[in-house]
Structures are given as C-alpha cells and as structure tokens.
Design brief:
single chain; mainly alpha; 2 domains; 85% helix; 0% strand; elongated
C-alpha cells in the first residue's frame, strides 16, 4: 500500500510540475510577444514617418522639376507643370498595369483546397501536398 501512495504522490507532483511548466511557458510566450509587438509598432511608426517624408520630398522635387523647366527650358508654367503631371500619370498607369498583371496570374488556394478534399475524403487523390510543393511549384 505504501508503494501505491508513493506512486500516487509522484504522479500528483509530476502533474503539478507539468502544469507549472506549461503556465510558465505561456507567460514567457506572452512576454516575448508583447516585447516583439512593441518593436514592430515602433518600426511601423518609423516606416510611416519615412514614407510621409518621402512623399513630401517627391512633391518638392516635382516643383523643382517644373520650375526648372520654366527657368532653363523657357517653358510656360502651365506647360512645365503639365509635363510633370503627365509624367506622374504615366508612372501611375505603369504601376497599375504591373499590379493588375500580377493579380491576374493568381490561382487562389488550389493546393490547400486539394489537400482539404483529400483530408475530407480520407483517400489520397493524387500526390500529397508535400510532394507537390517539394519541386518548387
């Protein structure tokens, strides 16, 4: 009977230690996540500030370019600002076309849908998802 009690006490101690270990690991993960979230937040704020400053620089550079065309090329102001505006419109159109082509080539989640169908049916319906992605496709 003494052996049963000691075995029961050992199981209870192991259960308590495992529970404490799990709680400690969860607290550590929370602390690391909080620290990383603060770092990501600060970095995002700095990126936003840099993007805003870059936006201002682009505006100032546009005025510089337009007034440079007025001064050096002796264009009228409306012509210089029109050319600069057209330049930005062409640049925006090129960006839209590139973005559209990249979105047009998307196929969706075909591999995920296929693997979910395999899991649902319980029978393999072709190569496994790991085999499909191992060749880089």
């Amino acid at each position: 009977m003494a052996e049963d009690e000691s075995l029961g006490a050992l199981v209870a101690q192991a259960s308590t230690h495992i529970s404490t270990l799990i709680r400690s690991e969860i607290e550590l993960a929370k602390a690391e996540l909080s620290f990383n979230a603060k770092r990501v937040g600060v970095a995002a704020g700095l990126f936003a500030a840099a993007a805003f400053i870059l936006h201002l620089v682009i505006i100032l550079a546009s005025f510089f370019l337009a007034y440079g065309l007025v001064s050096w090329a002796h264009w009228k102001e409306w012509q210089a600002f029109g050319v600069v505006t057209l330049f930005y419109l062409v640049l925006a159109a090129i960006a839209v076309l590139i973005g559209y082509r990249r979105l047009k080539g998307m196929t969706g989640f075909t591999k995920t849908a296929r693997s979910l169908q395999v899991l649902k049916s319980g029978t393999p319906a072709g190569p496994s998802p790991a085999a499909v992605t191992s060749d880089g496709s």
